Amino acid sequence: MKITLNQIYAGKLIPESSLYLIHGEPFHLINEIYSSIKRNLSSDIKNTIYYIESDSSIDDLRNDIESTSLFSEKIMITINILSTSIPRNLASYLQDIDIHEDIVIIIKINTTNASFKKSKIYTHLEKNYTSIEVRNLKGKYLDSWITKKLNINKVKCNQKSIELLKELYDGNTSALSQEIYKMSLDTSMDVETHLKFNYKYLKYSEFDLIEAILNQDRSKGMDIITSLRDSNFSEVYLLHLIQSEIRKFLYIKENIEPLPYIPSFKKNQYNERANSMSTDIFENLLSRCFHIDKYIKSSSNYNYVWDNFEMIFLELTNTEKLHCSSVRFDDYGY
After folding, report:
1. Measured torsion, CA atoms of residues 273, 277, 278, 282, in degrees rounded to the nearest 10
2. Considering the entire predicted model, what is its pTM?
3. In sequence order, what are the residues at sequence separation of 6 or more whose Cβ sits closer than 8 angstroms to the Cβ of residue 150?
4. CATH number of the domain located at residue range(s) 207-332 in this protein
5. 81, 187, 287, 308: most buried by Cβ count inside 10 Å?
6. C-alpha distances out from residue 17 to 1, 21, 27, 81, 106, Å
7. What is the pLDDT of residues 111-122, one digit of tens each?
8. Which CATH architecture group holds 2-134?
């Protein structure tokens, strides 16, 4: 059975099933559906979680599924797929398996790959179990999601609040979710007051800049930097965030332990960006961050700081092998 996220927000109930396939994007909405299914199961059910890559062994997973029938213990098995399709060995196993009545399997896969929906395993799971497709919310479904989030977090709102949030965050439910959580920390303010007091109606957040780097979206990234600059966003915090991202790329590139934490659904993006640039570039970018930090602390040359934020962003979104040395610090009188 196939249902969509829009149908769920329109009031359609998620049916009982021995296996759920939750697929699509964004990942945080996949997790919301996952949490909703978990809440409908017994609170004391044992949950075993697996992370499966394209070359992962499924021996332990197979053992968990097949041993349950021997002990009559009700369990939930969560399978996080870290590739853009279900690996062949797992697909073959799922097509032949007879799932015991005491087992609930939930498969999460963050992919919009068209070929995945044409695969035999997708057709099999959709026909025999429950497939839930997740897409970015729009229109009345986005309104419903925002209203529900605000109400759950006890934040005062009206239709104007919803329209304002949609405009400021361009319908990005990930950014909206983070913003609504911040609002929940002080429920004495309504949405409008909170945004005026904290952000002066920022259209973008600092995390949108990180997304622009990972998505190689230069045009949007430059708009985001301009928006943050015009709103007097903290240079210290933005520098810390950018420096942290550069270190992640460098640690991944050089396999430096301990490796930074990267959410599973973003690992491919981080690996691709880290491996597309040289170690020298990342080291030079960190050196530039050091110079920016000195300017911030000396409260001098505001333009230097933001111009260099732009140049770092452009370097990180450049597919050609450029080097930081092409930009001279002495152009700013350093």
Report:
1. -70
2. 0.59
3. 157, 161, 162, 180, 183, 191
4. 1.20.272.10
5. 81
6. 10, 10, 22, 19, 10
7. 878 889 899 999
8. 3-Layer(aba) Sandwich (3.40)
